[in-house]
User: Fold this.
Amino acid sequence: MKKKILVLLFFLTLNQAQSIETRIIHNIQNEIITNVDIKNEFKYLVALNNSLKKLDKEKILSISNESIIREKIKKIEILKNFKKIELNEEYSSILIKNIYSRLNLKSINEFELYLKDYGLTINDIKTKTTIDALWNELIIKKYGSKININKDEIEKEILKNSKIQIKEYQLSEIIFEVTKKEEIQKKYNEVVKSINEEGFKNSAAIYSFSESAKIGGDIGWINENSLNDKIKKNIVNLKNGEITKPIILSNGILILKLINTKNSETIINVKNEFKKAVNYERNRQLNQYSKIYYNKVKKNLNFDG
Assistant:
């Protein structure tokens, strides 16, 4: 009943153009979340992933609500470990460019005009990218020493394929959790049903705990040499638009969608490919620790609402 009331309240405020009565929805360790915060989170998520507009109101509310809760919890923990929530301007500009380039926009000016249609500003985006970046920095500080990457094996694989036809995969991901191994197939079927009904991008926003969920699960083009054998075996026979069976990883259950493939016969830049492969594996493991640490932080907070 409470959820239905929140849905009604939220979408009533969405349709009010002039004045909105601000109401507290959550109080997390004295960090307030209001109906206006949830509304603004909705606008931000839709700006990054337009397909969310196709979801029904209750699902949109749930995604926006969970997203702003995650941000507030991260902010609380960041303030315990950093003096200020800020980045240097150069790094901040790179993060902003990554976002608008993914939206196929060519300049910061185009991005500003694009955001205006959603009632957002560049500063709104900077605030969110700063929190995400500092959270990632925090995870690296706490868990960086635990990252285990077989660099010799990666380099060996790249050198072996440095002068042959290289295949690249354009992929999107959903990473979800289960509490018991027996629940994997049931949860997978639930996610697949959502993919068929709502689309992959929206299902990523609903189910995935990966950072890529905000952009519909998009992880871009990945060189086949950057992928571990388990993932390669699952995507090698996929056709464009198809998804994998559940891939069991240490940080959750992975579903990949193949968007496109391309081949290029060239002598690859071993140094660059090695760096990309190491970063891919490093980010995959850090994503695991990020989820673990987030759950730990959330469990220890006072949460009202």
Observations:
- The mean pLDDT is 85.
- The longest strand covers residues 252-265.
- The two ends are 14 Å apart (CA to CA).
